[in-house]
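User: Can you predict the 3D structure for this chain?
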Amino acid sequence: MLLSTLTLLMLSSTILAQDLSVPTAWRKPTTSLSQSTRIARAQRGIDTMLTQLDASTGQFTGIGFWQAGNAWSAIANEDYFTTGTRYKSQVTNALNTAFGMWVDYDQFGCYNDDAMWWAQAAVYAYRAYGDTNLLSHAVATWNHVSNFVVTPQAASSGSLPGKSFKITGTCEGLDNNHNINSNGIVLDTVPATWLFTYNSGKYIEGLSWRNSMINVVAAAVNDGIITEGASPTQNGDGVGFKAVFIRGLLEAFSRNKSNTALQTLIRSYIDVQYNALIDLASSGDAYSSAWHGPAQNFTTWGQLAALDVLGSAIAAN
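Assistant: Here is the predicted structure, written as structure tokens:
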């Protein structure tokens, strides 16, 4: 339940009939690679990423703090998908190191979302390894961040602890789908202006146990190979966003085993990204952030974006 709580960033939307068939225009929506081959490829991708680890901080050269938290999420999940402990020591040490350096994973003292990416990694790691100490990190971080959540009591009083401005007593935004555009895609802000894949990804993951996320899945996977974050020469947030999106889809896949149409759509979409990575964007075990290609030499951000796809292809097939 904590995993759902940490990722429940949006509220449910009205359910409309959706076409969950796999678009015929998608490039290579299946994979014939064996499970052992997919596991080996994912592990080589992680091992390549770990060459950039600064063990003294738990971070990676070439990417930022929040992205490093997401790298550990992908690495912990690979162990979870394979029911193994290959990366347990690296994951556990990094999450403990970061929590020891920055209380509640709050490195900057002002970015709750950064802290929550690390808390999410701690939850995934708890799921993979059963380490209750890591779970306690996630709980402590949530307790810290929840001080900034608008509770019914705060809404009634019109004020929020620690804030000098007044708040309204009713919400006219998320409850009424104002943060989902006319195409069914979750947007980034209120008022809604920005569009990034991770917004739909976290919505889908947080509501992956409810039918209300199916519309967003169907809308968000409409375009085939993801183009967001195609940045061969420099890191950017969009590079990490699409990894979060894939991770959210995989959670919906895993929690909806009775919905075969939804599972087939998500599996096919993940395989489209997987095959694009291998065929178009790989140079050995290094991956470009441009999944349409061309391949390029290693970048930490390109590798970060690939890890969730490589792991998800294990679990979805």
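Confidence is low (pLDDT under 50) at residues 7-16, 173-178. The chain is about 50% helix and 5% strand.
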